[in-house]
Amino acid sequence: MTEYALGRHADLLASLFVSAEVKIDGVIKPMTLTKVQDGAQVRVFINIPAAEVGRITRRIVKDETGQVVWDDPVDIVKPERDMTLEIRVEMTWKGGTP
Q: What's the pTM?
């Protein structure tokens, strides 16, 4: 698969990441999501304001219809300061040649 094709797959993947939530102290709360794409790499940032303090146990990203497209467990103690969590995904071709 060419770098161009991997980049197109990354475009599609990036388009799925629309909104973010975190589970903090047992409560799921919406957060601001930003994303950056560089070729075949997509970086998603979940921005958590200083006012949200507690133990973060899940990162959740949804598409435009509200379907979960990323959900993973974390264990982060969030102090009273702004914090950004990063999810990095890189498209790679793992297939062999015929």
A: 0.87
